Amino acid sequence: MSATSRRRPALAAAAIAAALAVTATACGPAEDESGAQAGPSATEPDGEGGPGIDGLRLPKELPAALKDFDPEKWKNGEWRNWDKDDWLREARDFVNPIIEGLWDPDRMKDAEENDRRVDPDAGDESTGGEGDEGITDPDPAPRKARPVATPYHENAPAVGKVFMDTPKGPMVCSGTVVEDPRNPGKSNLVATAGHCVHAGSAGGWFRNVVFVPAYNDSALKASQLEQASPAEVAPHGVFWATWAQTTEHWISNGAETGGLGASQDFAVLQVEAEDKGGKSLEETVGTAVPVDFGKPSVASLSPVRAYGYPAAPPFDGLTMHTCTDRAGRLTLSDSESTMYRIGCTMTGGSSGGGWFAEGASGEQTLVSVTSIGTIDHTWLAGPRLGEEAEGVLEGVSEKFAGKN
Description:
globular; 20 strands; 8 helices; alpha+beta
């Protein structure tokens, strides 16, 4: 994925402002639309909203790259066109206008997992290197994923599901409401995995990306969900991504299977309520989790607790689960930095879910997100969040400073 002219260094390496990219290519739209920003020609979010039709919100002005963009065609299904000449990979071509009512309860229920699987023997056991880097510990024992107590909005208020449309159809991941350093108490930021918003080296940005905090709040079964009210399915409503950013390492190297790009498989979304309720995401759910970008050593980490909505069998994607384990280290190759790894039986759909550990002050902090798991569902691995990941969050926060 090429970087744009809005990219700039962030904390020693991460470019942070013009594409949904792991080192920080930012991509996205203006306020009132989840989509379409470019380099110099892009319109900045201004909070007013622009041209559109009933049930669809767009930026006040469209970037030059989308001068022929037809909002009515888009709303009526043009977003399903994944032809390689139209599914452009440039940051300026990330288009995510808000289509009101698109993600109804039935569509959410039918979305499939967006998982990345590796061989259970991935990574050779090794010692040496500097600190934790370059080391792979013995495989962890599987830890059984356990259901999170309901209601989710009280017991795991920062956790939710991420939905997106891909060339393979509607898919799901998991995500976490995280603190925004420039909007304390009013964050609209969601941390997830890069592969939940961008296809990596073989493709481009996904579309119709939304976050639903505390999805299926009371853990209703599939038969019950068919009769459930929207408030039971999405107690806080649907939040559309108005801006998104992931690392350039993921965009340049990420692959659908295997571990390529996994060590920087991290993304941050800036979101907006579909119903324009006025409150920020953090105010709506009542919390936001601080992120630890210090890559704490496995020896210093308290037991890690991973959350997610596993969707592949034996799970159905409808209920939130969690695993708790001591983190070990996993190094997949010379091209990938060392990751955290825990024993966990969660399956696809848990991708992007947050990993929580106790911080120095005793509060729960986000130390990773789920990136990859094994074919036999015995362990999960996630990136250690360092300068590149911090550049991603800083880029999104800076872009929307004072505009929430």
